Amino acid sequence: NGSLAVPGGRDIAPAINELLTLPFTLKIATKDFHPRNHVSFDVSHSPPHNKAFESSTTIYNLQNPSESIEIPLWPSHCVQGTAGAEIIQEIDAAKIDRVVEKGRNHQVEMFSAFADIFGNKSDAASFDLAAFLKLSEIEQVYVTGLAGDYCVQCTAVDAKKEGFEVFVVEEATKSIDTGENGWEATKKKFCKSDIKITWAPQCGLDLVRNFENEKSNKATNLALRYIKILDEQFEIPGEITALRWLLFHINPTEPNSAIAIESHLALEDMTRDPGLTLSGLKP
Q: Residues 247, 209: contact at Cβ < 8 Å?
């Protein structure tokens, strides 16, 4: 509900909070943290060429002044020391491990959480996200948030450039432009860059897979939880079957009655359709 509000932006908070309950190794938030005189703000320029969403300005690479790029002008937003720069109350911030403050240098635009618009890493961000993830032995990055056609897009693309396997969770993302020139064009760019578009229940399934070899109670509980969610909220028998199959293989001898029931159902499903794959998505 700020000066640069994304239509329906707050609607993605429940999906993000659901993802925050999953056992990701790290959960990192990013936020624009602009000085009041940021170069992308309309108020930083003189009329008549200072109209937000209509005007643009040319900025130069601070590390290579011969390189320049034209950027759109925005209303002042996410200003340091204001409520607009804070994570909204609907997000369960207590589950977030680190916060990247980006766009802190008034001279350069920064959509990505990894680097500025020229690809430079500098004090425009509060820390080097790529280095931190690699130090933490992270291999996969899941991206959510606002706006899908700007910060989410650039963060996902830069994560891929850094060598990570990248997923964008579609129902946990909203774009400024939801049409062909915005989010639809962004998805085409993701496809070309081998960035996968996924959805929250699939994230749960992916994480359960990672626990399969550990035979852990955590994996069993997560599988049961997502079976329940999918049974109640979605009509996707393939996904449900896949989770039951996985649950059976995590702990086939567990005496717990709920697990025994799910294992029985898994065997029934596999008998009816022996061609099912683990994901339940691709025959």
A: no
